[in-house]
Amino acid sequence: MILETFTSSDVKISEKYLENLTVEKYEKLNRVGEGTYGIVYRAKLKSTNKIYALKKIRFNNENEGLPISSLREISLLRELDHINIVRVKEVVTGVKLDDIFMVMEYCDQDLAFLLDNMTNNSKYFRPAEVKCLLKQLLKGLDHLHENFIIHRDLKMSNLLLTANGTLKIADFGLARKFTMPVKPMTQKVVTLWYRAPELLFGEINYTKKIDMWSVGCIFSELILGEPLLPGKVELEQINLIIKLFGTPNEKIWPGFKDLPLNKLLKNIPFQEYNNLRQRFKNSNVTSLTLKFVEKFFIFNSEKRINCYAALKDDYFKEKPFECAKSNLPTFPEFRGENNLNKNDFNNENNKKRRRFDFRNVEDVNQLDIGEPIIKRYDEVKREDFDEDSVSDDESKFNDPDDLPPPRKYANIDHWV
């Protein structure tokens, strides 16, 4: 048997290597956000004074080890390399075994905050600015789809903006690889306002086109200055979709009659008109823009536009052309040590952007085209999406006891 011997130099090298993996080489500045899968800090690398975002991974159950969602996020982000996707620098640890941090490039704002806090004089993004943001989003998403990755949670608050106007797709806690042909996956993904109808009706063999519906919602929100489909519960979300796009049927959506929720709903409200153009009547958009928006909202996902076709669309060839990234509007970075507290901004709009979701509906057959029949809840719990496989048409989820709201900001003096 051969015994390995270690010299003092080997020990010193090991100690130096471990030092490079500790969070102590970063100086905590403040906490900038908190969500289902972790707390995000703004921190400075002591050796270079460069600013990074540190995401502390949340452990729902200490006995189960690192959550699969975090493992997947780390794995995917280390694999990806694109200017419009947030980059991971490294993974570091704290004093405790469950203190694990993802070190990512830092971005000054997210689009949700930027849109919520625009002044009355600049409430909306200008057409050239919308084109610039949308093109960056589509380029980043096209890179994901080309690498067989579905994001599954695209929304305004997951789109970050740097000081030079570069958009970054972030938060890959729900992202996963897909195969062709597609395999069953849980349909309980994507924040409600941005969720595609096939997910709402229970489809588990969905494709990357669910991301394109989300892009359509984001695109519309950039134009309108407010969410297009702000439902509070799943049935209300279906209500809003039917009101705006009409009632789906087997002719325009093959396979619709066989979807799980469609079988449960005895009487889906009938609404035969597409009211999208009416919804945009006060936004002064061109007919070519409206035609482009409609391509993201096709019920039949096979006919829904993809990233490649969207980037080639005539919408980007119409004047005004996209502006330079450096000309995009920004706010002074509100999350810095000496800057204003979030409460000094538009709290009412921030409250409106809370994530609502409630799936324990007693009677799914009382869907009405008018007022939602489900009691509205100010705060609800979000499912734990860590278990991602679906077998025998069943998916297993655990409800966390008390998860924080999706966007929460605070200043603290220590790592927690």
Automatic annotation (TrEMBL):
The keyword Nucleus applies. Its EC number is 2.7.11.22. The keyword GTP-binding does not apply. It holds the Pfam family Pkinase. ATP binds at residue 55. Belongs to the protein kinase superfamily. CMGC Ser/Thr protein kinase family. CDC2/CDKX subfamily. This is cyclin-dependent kinase. It comes from Clydaea vesicula.
